[in-house]
Amino acid sequence: MRRKITIALLALGTVVGYASGFASLRCRAEARRDALQRHVASLCVNAARDAERSDRADRAARAAPRSAAPAGPGAPQADTGEGR
């Protein structure tokens, strides 16, 4: 009788141990997936911010030489409204 109880307890412990291990693996897998999603989202946000900054810098670089460059002879003059 004592032997049967010991075998039953060992078998129950084995089953509970495996169940606990698989539950732990599942929980960690969800945490890793969530961490990966947060990481990818932050990469996307940073890439969008960098693209926005480079677009602004490109627009500023393109706009600066036009306004600073004098018009050549025969070039149409922009109506800036000065002298009105």
Automatic annotation (TrEMBL):
<protein>
    <submittedName>
        <fullName>Uncharacterized protein</fullName>
    </submittedName>
</protein>
<feature type="compositionally biased region" description="Basic and acidic residues">
    <location>
        <begin position="49"/>
        <end position="61"/>
    </location>
</feature>
<feature type="compositionally biased region" description="Low complexity">
    <location>
        <begin position="62"/>
        <end position="84"/>
    </location>
</feature>
<feature type="region of interest" description="Disordered">
    <location>
        <begin position="49"/>
        <end position="84"/>
    </location>
</feature>
